[in-house]
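Homework help board

Subject: predicted structure for assignment chain

Our instructor gave us this sequence and asked us to write out the predicted structure in token form, then describe one feature. I got the tokens but I'm not sure how to describe them. Can anyone check?
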Amino acid sequence: MTSTATSTAERLAAWAHDLRPTDEDRALARRALLDTVAVTAAARGSRMAALTTGLSPSARWAAVGHVLDFDDLHLPSTAHISVVCVPAALATGGGADAYLAGAGVLARLGTALGWSHYARGWHVTCTAGAPAAAVTAAVALGLSAERTAHAIALAVPQAGGVQAAFGSDGKALQVGLAAEAGVRAARLAAAGATADPAALDQWLALVGDAPEVDLSGPAVPGGLAIKLFPCCYALQRPIAALREQLPKTSAEEVGRIVVRTTASSVQPLHHHRPDTGLRGKFSLEYALAAALLDDHPGFASFTDEAVRRPAARRLVELVEVVLEPGGEGLLNGEADIELTMADGSRPRARLALPPGAPQRPPTDTELAEKLAACDAADLVGLDWSGAAAFLGDLLPGEAA
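My token output:
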């Protein structure tokens, strides 16, 4: 099939079927598994866990895994790859190979769709995530390349998700539904269901200007960014800038905050005066307040109560955002933050790469601190079969 594949779905299916992961690929998969299971475990008592009790395992694990917005991100595609592909693999008995096949497809589809797709308001984790979850599940189920192409096409009608959901239950739920859609499509294909593989190409033309998909490079080109703060990736850099460069600033003495950055770097930050913890995760103004007020902006910083603190509300009102038009990507340019203090001084912080970015990978200490924050330090030795059993006990789901 590799030599005769003509549609994008067939080419992706052949690539996934033929993938032979390297040691570096497997190391990435290992870190993705641990990170995803840890952030899912951290949300086991969340509202999302209660809301999803009637969903399938893949949907429930993905939605709960994403609700804290602490899961990893693939920057070239602006997609949360692992929170879709890890649950899809675990729910269908797959391991690292299935994860890497789906993750590679999601990375490539999302990258091909490009920044313009994200900038128009699509949630790439869901749009490219449903076909990618279909590949993950297809590989886990042992489907042929031909059957996998049908699974991809069967997932296309369910490939959706928009950024208007950010700051609501809808964001995590649409991620869960994307994972479930892919698993369902793969199981239908396994049962003999067919669909025209050209459906993916038609869909790509409708939502992404008919882009070409690049199959070269490692399993996940560009690697994965690991979050160290439980909020939107667009906030990792401004939070880190203040914490690293102005760590001893007294929040009470701040009289003005000016942020200069590119428009693309704040694309998902829709909530300027948030009143809930979920909305605070998508607010540049609140993230700066939390960075100034809290020793470490962690789970406690993104509760409804924390967002509504009078001290936080005061700081939010002091923020002025100056945007340079354009840009592509959440790390385009740099975050340039200037404070005006009560004594008239103007300390300044500038940062291009936050800790956890692929070019600035997290240290062992930072990873250990994240696991500890998730109450998941004892998961270090977890393997794929153990992870499925762990999540199955922690968050049992209904049959798909």
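Reply (TA_rk): Your tokens look well-formed. For the description, you could write something like this. The radius of gyration is 21 Å. That's the kind of observation they're looking for.
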